[in-house]
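Researcher: Please predict.
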Amino acid sequence: MASLSVDHLVGIKELSKEDIALIFQTADNFKSVLNRSIKKVPSLRDITIANLFFENSTRTRLSFELAEKRLSADVVNFSAASSSVKKGETLIDTVNNILAMKVDLVVMRHPNPGAAKFLSEHVDSKIVNAGDGAHEHPTQALLDAYSIREKLGDVSGKKVVIVGDISHSRVALSNIFCLQKLGAEVMVCGPTTLIPKYIHELDVKVEYDLRKALEWCDVANMLRIQLERMDVNYFPSLREYTMLFGLDKEFLNSLSKKIVVMHPGPINRGVEITSDVADSDQAIILDQVENGVAVRMAVLYLLAEKIKRED
């Protein structure tokens, strides 16, 4: 049986095109499981997984937890807010204490870029990066690409625009890496203050006019404004941002073709997209949520298979 070329999922950058294809193929199998009356499989019955969230999260944490339970893994949840981290304990000490309880796999979200990579080099456990600062969010990029493949048949050759707060978004960076590996053309669109200076090094197109960007694309991934990561004002007001970069149904209907609309959530309804766009037949936002469980099941299963081989 094929296996991943990596021992950890710390970023899309480390994955090969074959790795992504294997994850998608495995997710296809789990998606059919999720649509059965009995949604559990015993695949990870002997595996213990710790969810370490040093940053607030609802959707990603729940999605991972559901994926773990659907695979019959034993699950331990850890919240930094109520832990010894508040007393000054280091990341490695925290994780080593958890691993001493014989944990096989760690799913971690951390506010510092590179935290998952650092951990993967210092502890004897498989690490899945559930988001590290404004750096990467690999499982989100995988589920986004998987959702495009499901909707349009293939990712290769498709034109995808990522709209909004590119500078502060780990979703944007992981999506760029993933989409390019799968042969898609990528464009970013947003205010000049929210497009990072290094973006041209990533071989993506840049557009500051939303209408031009949407007329170009097959798929628009609308990101939320990450106000919690901003220490200064990057634009005059949310109202002005919405006027220039928000998508409503009238705008969507005025385009010369039908495009697919995505959003990684949580949605700021009325800011980046209106409710009638989010709930329209062109939006695949709820498909992304459903696919997130299947893709995370696939990632956890494939990493656990490596643990079993090592044993």
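Model: The chain has eleven helices and nine strands.
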